[in-house]
Amino acid sequence: MARTDGDSWGITESVGATALGVAWSRALEQNTECPLFTDPYAQMFVDAAVEQGWQPPPAQMAERIRSIGGYAASRTKWFDEFFIAAGANGIDQVVILAAGLDARAWRLPWIGGTVVYEIDQPRVLAFKVDTMRRHEVQPTARYIPVPIDLREDWPRALRDAGFDASEPTAWAAEGLLPYLPASGQDLLFERIHRLSARGSRVGVESFDAGFFEPGYLESRRQRLAEYRRQAGEEDPNGAGGDAFDVQDLWYTEERTEVTAWLTDHGWDVTSIGAADLMDRYGRCAAGEPDDTTPRTAFVEGQRAC
Ligand code: SAM
Questions:
Q1: What Pfam families does its record include (predicted)?
Q2: What percentage of the chain has pLDDT greater than the value 90?
Q3: pLDDT of residue 221
Q4: Is residue 45 exposed (0-12), middle (13-18) or buried (19+ Cβ within 10 Å)?
Q5: Which atom, in ligand 1's list, is nearest to the CA of 174?
């Protein structure tokens, strides 16, 4: 499971499977009584992956860790609002980094003329595009997949695909940064900055402020393993008990603080911590131990100069 330079994956393998995990949690949210967002495509992706032999986590797992379901739903909602606000301010060029099975290009009410570029590994985007095509689903914006690894020269691939760096862009990095080494994260932001015209916006799920502190990660690992074990015991199929821990796919290194970096580079920045965001959406992790609520923040930057 260890990561290597230049590793690659399909949708049911390694880091690719984390995109399925997110789709699975969005499908669960979609089926709640009062969902924070509408994503009819998440279940479609899960079903297509199950056809390929992927085994979703047992539903009992989400029941048990309410904070995980609440976190994933709040994160999706925050990025939905980020893009809608960018559109309301006239930004019609969007780049979703590590898009995975994000279905925003098919489900958000984009302003007329919006182009959505999605970057992810080739086999991940191929699975997604193929699933949408098989279900004859049409995007709500002009959709341009850019299949390339983010450790490669993606700015060139983006430009070749039609991206215009002289126009303001709305960028998103959701569920991405731990899968890049700290140096790769620095390079990512340098590139975003270079490609951002004045007025551009960036939405980031940031993992600084102690997220990679070993004691925190270890207690999180142990608690999640225990939840998985209990969920596996309750599941009639016995699934879940031996699932891998996503931490094994992360580069657990302290990183440049995103808010400080953006501020230093002339972006106006606002930020909200995960617990406050979940509270805002009525998804607070009441009764759950702190170490299941990720120590993340949701950072929005606007390029002022
Ligand atoms: N942003 C999506 C969402 O929230 O639904 C997907 C999040 S998923 C946890 C992580 C995604 O990052 C996967 O789709 C994976 O393929 C992508 N990813 C991670 N490292 C990458 C890299 N070096 N190049 C391209 N994609 C990468």
A1: LCM
A2: 73
A3: 86
A4: buried
A5: 1
Q: For residue 302, what are the β-bridge partners?
A: 201, 268
Q: Report the pLDDT value the prediction gives residue 242, as an integer from 0 to 100.
A: 47
Cβ of 176 closer than 6 Å to ligand 1, yes or no, is yes
Closest Cα partner for 278 from 291, 294, 289?
Answer: 294
**Residue whose tokens read 């995980």:** 68
The β-bridge relationship of strands 297-303 and 267-273 is antiparallel
CB 152 within 8 A of CB 74: no
Q: Which is more confident, 116 or 304?
A: 116
What is the pLDDT of the chain when averaged over all its residues?
Answer: 91
Residue with tokens 């953006």: 262
CA–centroid distance, 19 to ligand 1, in Å, is 6
Residue identified by tokens 């998440």 is 42
Which region, left, alpha or beta, applies to residue 287 given φ > 0 means left and ψ of -120 to 50 means alpha?
left
Distance CA 196, CA 61 (A): 40
pLDDT at 66: 63
Q: Which atom of ligand 1 is nearest to the CA of 97?
A: 1
